[in-house]
Amino acid sequence: MAGGSWAGYRALSGDSCATTERLRVAAAPEVAPAVTAAAATWSKDAKVGNACVAVDVSAADPAAMAAAVGTRHGVNLGTLGKNVTADVDVWIPDSSTWLLRIAAEAPGFTPESFGSIAESPIVLAVPETTATALGWPARTPGLTDLAKKLATDKSVRPAIVDPARDATGLSGLLALAGAAGTDASATTLKVGIMRALSSNSSSIRSDMLQKFPQAADAVGTSVGLAPLSEADVIAYNRNQPAIGLAALYAKPTAVVLDYPFAVMPGVDPQKADVAKALRGALTTSAYKNGLAKAGVRGADGTEGTGFAAPKSAPATVPPPAAQNPATVSAAIGQLLGSWTAITQPGRMLAVFDVSASMNAKVPTAGGITRAEVTRAVARQGLALLDDRWSVGNWTFSTNMVGTRPWKENLPISTVAAHRQDIANAIEKITPKAGGDTGLYDTALAAYQAVQHGWQAGVSNSVVIYTDGKNDNPGGLTIDQLVDKMTKLRDPKRPIRMIIIGMGTAIDRGELESITKAAGSGGVFIATDPAKIGDIFLQAIASRKGA
What pTM did the predictor assign? Predict the structure, then answer.
């Protein structure tokens, strides 16, 4: 971490201190100076029990810190973590989404959050000349209208920072996806939005900011819209560029960077008490004024003294209504899954259970069968994939080809040349009367098939959909499967084994033993089969074992 500084301390009323309790805090760079100043003022007279306190506040890039914290808990978020340590007591990232993403894949990651200590609303940043043509600042286009426009109008030239690596990108994607609505056309609109944004995506924020027009004659050819934080716009305009950025605000507020104050798991009780006391010090007017210098609002959405508000910015941006963390986490997983499918080409063998139990009705899906639900999910998944993908289709039960439990409906084929063939193969997902579940033999054969044609530079994966336990007399045992797959595994040619279970007859333990033997992947269970579409997207986004 960079920018560390010790906040001094002394004993209350001249009393000596038996010990000094030192608290290590990692904060997002834009709020670190304000946190440092507040901690210095507070710790001069602070005491917890018989201990004086000292606070070390270090500025830490949220993505790098997330990589370090995630690695400690066995989660690879795909972010880059350099010169950052997870050995801190308190983490203040720019967004709670980092905490939710780690917790989604590491149930043991249970930080204690003490709420937001700052806020910066997500806005749509647009070159001022373009915004003026849209009626700004007298009129601000609605978020829903802009979402539709950027999905259909190529002249908008939208861009985004990779939402898998940046909280502004992810938060912006959440806001735009929300604006797309929930009706029958919403899915198509969301896909259109993501395809448009991906055409100018950047891995880091500083790179994307350089894509805005740097001169008047570049307005028609440079990036014309991107979701950013209000603080980003303020910082950009502070440098007095030739073409400033306008900030278009959602009404009501859709998404904000919320800067959560999170005490890390495993912190000893006395340090936790110090952290709680420090949290209380981050509520003063002096602290809010410190945030204002960085273009960041107080946690209540109001401005401190010296806040350089963008033109047309509201004086107060109330935080969005609280949402269930599980609901937000699921939404993040689904969006990142869609983003991954759209932006990162892959090579995937999809393997579908067609045992007789797939004829079971799904009450929560209008009474259609599990097989019908699965076909619908497969069609939706295909709609996400661009022409760079390659996809194959197998079905399995028992005695599908002689005594062999699986059948190849389509070998792994490029979407560019075989999209219709892939769509036609989906219709082969039809249950076999009296068929059981030859899972183990099929899993091994599918793994070998993907391994045989392994390609560098893309994700090579097997995705198995099943609703039951292995039942294939005379076939492999679980021990035999694990032994064979472990011997086949080649770290230089990794294959992700993703198993999506549906219903309640699933044995998670046996499925996890398969994915562990494969060396990469994960098990995802939809106890309600109607939810397997959401589970599929979460599985694609997940980097468990990656």
Answer: 0.83
